[in-house]
Amino acid sequence: MSEPSSSVAEQFEDASQQYEAAHLGTWTFLATEILFFGGLFMAYVAYRHAYPEGFAAGSRQVSLTFGTLNTAVLLTSSLTMALAVQAARQRLTRSLVRCLLLTLLCATGFLVVKSFEYHDDFIQHLVPGPSFSRLLPARAEIFFFLYWAMTGLHAVHVLVGMGLLAALTALARAGRFSGGYHTPVEMVGLYWHFVDAVWIFLYPLLYLIDRHA
Description:
Elements lengths: L14 H36 L1 H8 L4 H26 L3 H31 L16 H34 L9 H26 L5
Helix pairs in contact: 1-2, 1-5, 1-6, 2-5, 3-4, 3-6, 4-5, 5-6
């Protein structure tokens, strides 16, 4: 779906070319992000295979309640973001603003829950370093190093997404997308679904996979 010709930048021949360029650029960026997270996922798999007992002990210490709640919040945000894209395509400005605000609210809720979880982790001495809990196996510290690295990096991506959502909301309120130009909404939607997809992998790896051990 291309955008109105009035929204075509001068470096593009037509609306279709601009739309395709935006998609290509976004997917290329997301591919680099996948490679970035992929290194952490591979490190997790390798160390979990090497130290299964330490990782099992570490996994049992993280809060399943917080992790499950944040999963539900992010899945809801994916729905509201998809509805925002649909509203932008149909030129429904009020619905677009409403859905963007709901997505932004979900993102804020995610970080609030995560902050409570991190606070509990600090209290329980689950932060790698000199004060790390001596009640856990030594190799559990590797689990928590990866836990903090992966969830922390994901939280940074959520913050970036919140900035993009806030900018889209301001533009939507100003009527920027009322004429049928909706490419920025779609591109931010792709980014947000990527952020959600990363968490869908983090949730079982960090919170579920060793619960039975």
